[in-house]
Amino acid sequence: MLALLMALVLATDLAEVRTSGDVLHSFRKESRVRVVSVWATWCAPCVAEIADVQAIADQFRGRRVEVIGVSLDDMIPGDRTATKTRVASFLEQRHVRFRNVYYTGAANDLADDFRFDGSIPITLVFDENGHELLRNEGVLDRKWFITQLETLIAKRRTTK
Amino acid sequence: MKSIALAALLLIATAGFAAEIEVGAKAPAFSLTNATDGKTVRFTPGDGKLSVVVFTCNQCPYARAFEQRIIDLGRDYAQRGVVFYAVDSNDDAQYPIESAAEMKSRAVSRHYPFPYLKDADSAIARAYGARVTPHIFVVDGSGVVRYRGYVDDSAKVEERKHEGLRAALDALLEGRAVQTTATKAFGCTIKFKS
Question: B124 and B35 in contact (C-beta within 8 Å)?
Fold first, then answer.
């Protein structure tokens, strides 16, 4: 019962977004490197990589790098409140602490705007102006991604 | 200028899927076992029949969300001479729910009006460049791919704006050009046999 209540509370924190613009506007102003991880609980590779996404969020904490997960669970027909509760419960069980939003718009619009072919997971990195800097299509290559992020941060520091 | 420079510098890592077969290309032939009755089913592109190859599977919730829709379309369009082939290319060694026995159980209980074929080594998915389930390829009577992508743009009836598969079939059956020939298929990634 307690777990269910906790999941319900967490579900209310799972903000609903309808567009790619909403996703990009969900980042804190001070975040200079903005990582968007598009995923769903029904996507096995997404579930498999979520610990890596959390590890990246942890590794770059305090360096003006922010990670936001975009759940596409709403693509499956069903009761939205129940689905959100399930997603929140999943995030709680997996000890996911990076912020997540719940996408309720058309998935194809998101794919068009972020220029991907519909395959998830996909991880995209934007600057504070919404320009894409980096992407990882498919399961996150954690080592590669961290190296690229470090390079990006160093480059941005020198061009500041 | 800045955005051009950034675009040039954009770094991309990819999962390395085979590219989807192009619309206008000749569709690959296949000969696969129908899990429902154990018989071999051959698809010979250019056999004069308008055909639909549906990559799907047992486990994926997104494929399941489209299952009844595909069954209904398969049944409706069979009356107009369209042949559907449902193909499960997932590795059943890693995912036993994708075994031929499980496929048979699903196809029988759901009354699939088309064969449900096991692509045991995922070769056919690779040949078509199928990435996800469900992923659709429409092949005309001359064996040329005329549409690829999603069934519909949403699994939710109330949010559906484009019925990709139906629109392609209607156009081809009426001798018109398909308006939207390629769409983005969403779904669970195919678990390829390595």
Answer: no
